[in-house]
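Trying the structure run again after the queue cleared.
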Amino acid sequence: MSHLFEHKGADGKGYSQPEPILSVDSLRLPDSMKRSAAPRWPRLSEPEMVRHYTWLSNRNFGIDTGFYPLGSCTMKHNPRVNEVIAQIPGIADLHPLQPEHQIQGILAIFHEMQEMLAVCSGMNSVTLQPVAGAQGEFTAIRCIQEYFRTRGELGRTKVIVPDSAHGTNPASAAMAGFEIVEIPSREDGRLDLDALRAVVGDDTAAMMITNPSTLGIFEPEVAEAANIVHEAGGQMYYDGANFNAILGRTSPGLMGFDAVHYNLHKTFSQPHGGGGPGSGPIGVRSHLAEFLPGPVVKRRPVMPQDRLTNANNEWWYQWHFPKNSIGKVQQWHGNAGAVIRSWAFYRRFGRELKTMSEHAVLNANYLRHMIHNIAVERGLDHLFCDGAPVDVVKHEFTLSLASLKEKSGVGAMDIAKGLLDRGYMAPTVYFPLIVPECVMIEPTETESKEVLDLFAERFVDILAEDPEVLHQAPTTTPVRRVDEVYAARNLTLAHPFEEE
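Done. Tokens:
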């Protein structure tokens, strides 16, 4: 393992720069702002610095180095042309505070992205402000909250969430101050309408649900669920993390939803991982539009007084704050780079986005059945069961390794770590919680049949591996298995300096 602090470098500093024109004394800084000792940062020469980070990058796992089957919020190939477009100087070098007449190009892109997302989701208005799916959830729930406040319906204090929901759904609603009401799924993994009817009422603010669910199951009765909630005066929120499974086939609007967030960094091809960068815009029906966070982009016909760089432009684009906006939820105007990359992806594939969703569903079902078929051939199918009791799943699927755990002591975490040793990113484990010893796999539409075939074989190989070997996995990675619970509860956010 390489550590920057192991290097000695130059005496006193790790760089070589001309002396400043103004000395520290000439700046007349107060003594309280002057350092009494040199900062504790590594003393490296440029070659040492480059070698360290090159070494580190070679040990990082990403979609460019291997298959990334992480379920629910996976990563897929991102066309490099998107990066080229996002780095065009007229886009990348703009400042958020530049006047509108200097940034008509990027405003046009933002407006087109808003319109495209509204059309494909069946919503009326869109804001690009949120920079993550969870932030999009919170933003939409806050818009719904303000909607009820303006109507004087302060008694709507509860948000209904199925037990198969993403964990961020109840967290986002709780952050907004709502009480969470969880309803159970039926035996087939789908939404229980009777359970919904039993809890909905005058105190219901909204129901949060994703369709397909985290089990990869489509909810055919979601429109009826929307009717139940709407009849009680509540709102329907669509978690768009799985939007890539239905794009071009149906929409949240057709299902009866009032608000939706989109994961641009998943559905529309934006590199993400390690916590970002992402983009989680939200779309809403017209009755919620006035509460959206601003600014959003509006357009109007060009007028004589507009200062244009191109007099042939037909439209003038400008920033706009909705009437009763909940306020900004992100600095500046959201994650502009993510929006640009996603816009480039949409402009490149256009109507083919429907094919994208179809291939995502095809790949998930193919891989699901390949794993089962290979396990049957090797007599290992008794070691796991399907977590989604339906014939056809959508973009992802779940497997329960409870039988394997009971027979050999090998659980979902051991299988995930074993996959790391075979060159794969580990799939999601222990989620959703309603599937015991759950492994959730999402291959996406960008992987080939050959990749899926090999992964299925390797996955089944691990089922027959020596339990003691799997308990020690991973053994080929730079860092071995860590105590994840301890690490989460005892964060080390700074280098542990030794006392001098």
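Residues 5 and 42 are 5 Å apart (CA to CA). Worth checking whether this holds up in the mutant runs.
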